[in-house]
Every structure is written in C-alpha cells, then in structure tokens.
Amino acid sequence: MESIDLIKLQEDVFVWILEKVWTMDTLIQSSAIIVSFLISALLYRSIKSKTINTINKIETSYLAKRIMHNLRRLIVSFLMLFLLFLFEIFAIMLKSGIDFSLIDAAMSLLAAWIIVRLAFQFVENSFIRNLFAFTIW
Fold first, then answer.
1. What is the maximum alpha-carbon separation in the chain?
2. Which of 111, 101, 105, 38 minimizes the C-alpha distance to 81?
3. How many CB atoms neighbour CB 44 within 10 A?
4. pLDDT, tens digit, for every residue of 105-132?
5. What pTM, to 2 d.p., does this model score?
6. From CA 8, how far away is CA 74, in angstroms rounded?
C-alpha cells in the first residue's frame, strides 16, 4: 500500500486554490454578489416600513395580506437577482471576458429560492410552508 505524502497533497491543494479559486474573476464576482446584497438590503430597509403600512391599509382578506407580507420578504432576493443580472449584462457589453460561473450559480439559487417561496405561499400553516420550502430548495 502506497503512503500518502500529506505535505505534497497540501501543497497541491494550495496551488489549485491559488490557480482556480483565488482568481481575479472570482474576486470580481464575489464583490458583485456582496455589493448587490448590501444594496438590496439597504433598499429593503429603506422601504420596509412603507410597504408594511401599505399592505396593512389595503382592504382585503387575511390570506391576501399574509401572502403580500410573505412576498415583501422576497424583495431582497428580487433586487439581488436584478442587480446581478444588470452586472452581468454590463460586463458583457464591456466585453470584459469575465467568467460568470459564480454569478450564474448565485442567480440560479436566488431564482430557485424565489420560485419555491412563491409556490408555497398558499400553504396555510407557516411552519409546514417554511419546512417544505427549505427542504425542496
């Protein structure tokens, strides 16, 4: 049985991380994801009370209000998805040559999260709704 050289393995892993993970493309994409999250969170925070008050003032059923409040919680996800899409379009227009695999993965996960959350809005029990949404996602 051949023994494993742990030092060589550690060096190979470190080299792989430097060459494949810690790249300028990854840094740019990670920055875009973080910035889009921060902008989305700040925008949501600035409109949160207005949207809550507007939803509460609407004369409609309890179910409709509950759905609207749950959709309100998806504003950050929608905004992030939109901002990442704009970043990708802008980078393509500039012919930057950036690999968008990390942003594409983030956008796919955000879209899946939004679709799953939207699909389960009509489940009455919030515990079951959140459990199913989290499990399926």
1. 75
2. 111
3. 19
4. 999 999 988 888 888 777 777 787 778 7
5. 0.76
6. 46
